[in-house]
Amino acid sequence: LRLLGGVFPRLTPQIFRIGGPETIRGLSYGQLEGNHIGIFNAELRFPLVETLRLGWPLRVGLGGIGGVLFFDAGGAWWENARFIKNGRFDDLTGGYGFGFRLGLGYFALKYDVAWRTDIRSRIGGARKYFTIGIDY
User: Fold this and answer.
1) Where do the DSSP E strands lie in 1-136?
2) 15-67 per-position pLDDT tens digit
């Protein structure tokens, strides 16, 4: 689980931009912006393959192949946000999906497939992300 939040006062020229694999999956990179943010991420991580060894043509071993199911929710807004209206996200948005991880020591190769949601329905098609980084 991860919970992020932040506020920049109106006089400060900083802007939060969220969307993409590091904030809310199911959105384009930086799709939402504002001087207030709130983000919630939940992941269920599980092992798929402990060790995979290939013998020909190269002796290669891969380990730490896992899967993930996730749900992300949050938003970025300027002032006076309405979070939920008529049982749907209003100034918030969400994303859900699944992914795969390949452990590379401290880093991981990550592949995620995500759909955007307003709680009651899916919005648009699937977005696919391929990233290299660390898990929170």
Assistant:
1) 2-7, 16-18, 32-34, 36-54, 60-77, 84-85, 88-89, 93-104, 107-117, 122-133
2) 899 999 999 999 999 999 988 899 999 999 999 998 888 887 888 877 789 99
Q: Rounding to the nearest 10 degrees, give the CA dihedral for residues 66, 136, 36, 34.
A: -60
- Residues belonging to the chain: 136
The C-alpha atoms of residue 61 and residue 14 are separated, in whole angstroms, by: 45
Report the C-alpha gap between 40 and 72 in whole angstroms. 6
CA dihedral 17, 21, 27, 33 (to 10 degrees): -10
**What DSSP state is assigned to residue 105?**
T
